[in-house]
Amino acid sequence: MRHPAADLGRPPDWQAVRRVLVVRADNLGDVVMTTPALRALRRAAPHVRIDLLASPAGAQVAPLIPAVTDVLTVSPSWQQAGPPRAAAELAADEVRLVERIRAGNYDAMVVFTSHSQSPWPVAHVGMLAGIGLRAVHSTEFGGAVATHWVTPPPEGTHQVDRCLHLLAALGVPPAGPELELAVPPTDRAPGGPFAVLAPGGSCPAKRYPPERFAVVARRLAEAGLAVLVTGAPKEAPLVDAVVAAAASPLVAPLGEVTVPELAGVIGAADVVVCNNSGSLHLADAARVPLVVTYAGTEARTEMPPRTTPSAELLGRSVPCSPCRQFDCPYHQECLDLDPAQVASAALRVVREVALP
After folding, report:
1. Phi first, then psi: what are they for 351, rounded to 5°?
2. Which among 3, 242, 293, 352 would be 20 to 30 A from 200, CA to CA?
3. CATH class of 14-169
């Protein structure tokens, strides 16, 4: 239901806007899914400087986004899911954040969120920083904290479409739903056909079991594909476990890479096999064949790949999905997949792209 106080703001005069702060203080993949909206904003207002406020994870992909001029890297309290911090420490962080944003002299703030996130804390920061236009999606009452409070589309809407919906309310027409990254070339790809396998994810509930990923890697190697296994630095033990269990000379760790370097390797791959993670969206943006072991933490309609020409989402339908859980309280039945099925899907999408 639409709140009677929502949807009252008129589209701004974009010709009068000079500096915009786009907020997506979330995971890397969420930032990648904002790229169609950023492209639309850039085309509608080519004179505007667009800066991105992002988390440390999301900020790593900012150099690959053509529309972004600069990035403000923050770890905002409203996005932290760890143990509580002291109130004085949090207050000091927020004061510093207000000062950093005020120094940017932004005319507008556009806050992109998933359906379960509240935009009001960051919109309040924008108000304190003196930003005149503050646009958000919300079904909750937020008073005058936002100047443009837009009723969001239904739950389950793809994240790309959700971002474009907010911009449409601001008078910005869409410029296509395709993800857009400036993927660099790489010199780290092995000779011949190869797969990238990414067994990690932002939380345990999203991760297909590593021992099964190892079987997938071994089967792909038996089919003639070299397999590079990758993960964030904190996922190095997971990567090593998959490589060791695969027990194949064709399966090796990619090693430590930056996000732009990872995007380059992914862009050169014949197929990417991963969980619902940043690697999914990097591969989708690079238009690389893709197989995703897709947990029931989110609805299947919210963030599946749509840019790559060949992709398969694998997962079991379960009554508890979408659960939004970091840790599965049951037995991860949504990811109870036969590794042979995953490997077969990977080989199938490779063949689909290779067909004339």
Report:
1. -65, -40
2. 352
3. alpha beta
